[in-house]
Amino acid sequence: MQSPSSNGDTATRSPARADTETAATAIAVRGVAKDFGGSKALDGIDLDIRPGELLALLGPSGSGKTTLLRAIAGLEPLTAGSVHFGGEDATGLRVQDRKVGFVFQHYALFRHMSVADNIAYGLTVRPRALRPPRDEIRRRVEELLELVQLPGIGKRFPGQLSGGQRQRVALARALAVEPRVLLLDEPFGALDAQVRKDLRRWLRDIHQRTGHTTVFVTHDQEEAVELADRVAILNRGRLEQLGSPDDILDRPANAFVAGFVGQAVRLDVTVADGFIRAGGIALGPAPAGASGGPAALFLRSSDVDVVAPGAGTATGTVTAITRASASRRLEIRLADDLPPVEADVGLDVPVARGDTVALRIRTGRLFALPST
């Protein structure tokens, strides 16, 4: 059982160690804070992003994830802290000098320009001394259209494309300037579910082929877990946990992360004499090393098994049944004063609303609460 003060991979660094780590990272965020009036959008964020990594910024609305992405890009001036790219302090650099590619949720394509001109825009507006020759720009646009699987549409206009195609063009435009970092703000948020799913696979493939360090904002947990090498969980402007999808799902750093990811139900419980109790009933044995007192237990459907009568650690009443593709999900009430938990059973398991079922409950996501 963990205390609520745990915050994942975040830690205090000595100045010497911080300098070494900054040089070894693609992006280093150090003590970044951002205030809007009297409200703290970011509150002392420390974050290291590895070269070639695909990192997801995940959190509820208002957690600060988009503000952090904009701060990295230079679109949002900082109240405090610094941002480094490959060991270089970029805090004072203009957006155009940071060499980042930014993809917005709503495409931000120029409707009066062709697809080819949109992709080439970042190259054609460079000062003449830095602008590639016209033939090289044309070749680069054709290569990028092939990369994003849209060959031959350079003469079309954004209004002639689907939402998924427009987002691919937006990514091609971001890649055209050969950025050292690619930043995406909810890139699939405006698309329907099936298109989102297809583009998630496509983006992962693009990332593997190009190797760009990529940071993307999402509120979709499935998207973060499926795409990212690591996930940064934000809440109220603070970094709660940084880790792999397995870390986030299976080893949450604190009660907030345990409750936020994985569609978990929270039960306020008491640990005493080696058992976990809630609503006057025993749910099961406490994990080894769990201290006595009040705690929060987080249960997903995968933590609750329906077992043969007499074989469980608790019982409950089935209050609702919903069908999934290859299983059924049961909503089960353990006691009148507790929120219902969920369990998945096979289609061949005979069960009906109102049945009393025996349950075996896994109690690993248990977090101590302050004593009152």
Automatic annotation (TrEMBL):
Recorded protein name is Sulfate transport system ATP-binding protein
What domain of life does the native source organism fall in? Bacteria
Picking any one GO molecular function of the record gives: ABC-type sulfate transporter activity
Which GO CC terms are listed, alphabetically? ATP-binding cassette (ABC) transporter complex
Which Pfam families would you find in this protein's record?
Answer: ABC_tran
Question: What are the UniProt keywords, alphabetically?
Answer: ATP-binding, Nucleotide-binding, Sulfate transport, Translocase, Transport
Species in which this protein is naturally found:
Phreatobacter oligotrophus
Q: Ranges for the ABC transporter domain?
A: 27-261
Q: Does the keyword Transport apply?
A: yes
Q: Which family does it belong to?
A: Belongs to the ABC transporter superfamily.
UniProt-listed InterPro entries: AAA+_ATPase, ABC_SmlMolc_Importer, ABC_transporter-like_ATP-bd, ABC_transporter-like_CS, Mo/tungstate-bd_C_term_dom, P-loop_NTPase, Sulph_transpt1
One GO-annotated biological process of the protein: quaternary ammonium group transport
